[in-house]
Amino acid sequence: MSKRKILFAAALLFTAGAASAQTAVATAGGEAGTVSYTVGQPFVETAQSDAGSLAPGVQQAYTITTVEVGVGDVAATVELNAYPNPVADRLTLSVADTDKSLRYTLTDNNGRALATSEIANALTEIDMANLVPAVYFLRVDDGNVMVRTFKIVKK
Questions:
Q1: Chain-centroid distance, C-alpha 135
Q2: Are residues 94 and 21 part of one domain?
Q3: Degrees (nearest 5) of the Cα angle 23, 24, 27?
Q4: Is residue 123 within 8 Å of 97, Cβ to Cβ?
Q5: Whole-number Å distance between alpha carbons of 124 and 86
Q6: Which of 11, 39, 59 is the last residue of a domain?
Q7: Beta-carbon neighbour count of residue 153 at 10 Å?
Q8: 120 lies in the same domain as 103
Q9: What does the pLDDT look like over 45-64, one tens digit per residue?
Q10: Is the peptide bond before 84 cis (omega within 30 degrees of 0)?
């Protein structure tokens, strides 16, 4: 082997040994504050305390769409929460105003409707135990008006 090839191989090995994996520090804010980091996604583990939560390797958006419409400002007057997210078995949908004729639709990533029902109580439980771990979307409508869509992570 020539000297030139040996030098090239040595330089290649040195460069490969000095290289490091791509990392990023991703920050997010919330009411209590949230700090997170990401280095790929080998596992999902969430640590929670009174000060907030830490989810290494996963970035979770809570509400993906909030549309405020001109028809009586329906979206502005309806307070909604969906928890826990990520969910294992049962998702709770909390509605502050049950006087509206609200309806939810749970869809998969392809837009297929998996569950739909009227929201009659302040707390509505949605059974997700039989669903595979994936990302789902929970859309809440008031008649023909979309109020809010949540991105739900099933673990």
A1: 7
A2: no
A3: 155
A4: no
A5: 17
A6: 59
A7: 17
A8: yes
A9: 666 777 666 655 544 444 54
A10: yes
Rounded Cα distance, 143 and 20, in Å: 53
Q: Which of 45-49, 70-74, 76-80 has the lowest mean pLDDT?
A: 70-74
Give DSSP secondary structure letters for 80-124. Answer: EEEESSSBSSEEEEEES-TTS-EEEEEE-TT--EEEEEE--SSEE
pLDDT of 17 reads 57
Enter the pTM of the model: 0.53
Say which residue the tokens 């804010």 belong to.
Answer: 29
pLDDT tens, position by position, 116-129: 999 988 999 999 99
Structural domain count of the chain: 2
Is the pLDDT at 95 greater than 80? The verdict is: yes
Tokens 């939560």 belong to residue: 53
What is the extent of the structural domain holding 14? 1-59
